[in-house]
LSU ribosomal protein L21p
Amino acid sequence: MNWCILIPLVVGAICAILGYLLGRLIGGGNHDECNNKLGRLQTQLDACKLSKVSLEGDLKSTKASLASSLIAPAAPAASMSSAVLIPFDAAAAKAVLGKKIKENDLTVVEGIGPKIQELFHNNGVKTWKALSECSIEKCKEVLISGGDRFKMHKPGTWPKQAKFAYEGKWAKLLKWQDELDGGK
């Protein structure tokens, strides 16, 4: 038997086995990270789909409302100027944010904790819609009313974050909050 042929075959087989084992040992940890990211992306996609369905329903009802107002022009102008209420979808919020969200919980806004929420409630701002309609100056006045310990907070993004929450745009809110640093 010719040993010159057998030695490279044995060395090649050993190298292939060691390479496979090292590859499994070193590269095996990435699967969990990829699966976690895939899970987050899937929940964001599901929330986006829910939001799309909700928006399509809103569009149909708005079209129907406009059509009925064109058919019956005698309707009072006050009914046309009334604000359209956007229903809160807790399932969509949970799907995107990964936690149970209560309707009009101001602490969803990055930078607002329970104490600041209490300040806003004491100043008549109790909903996401109300906060979204506040000016930044009004937010600063509310913080000043709480004393010196609240002056350091920067409410510059709070009304827009509250608007995303009120409108059910959870994916946009989450994306923007990922870019923010403590609500700033």
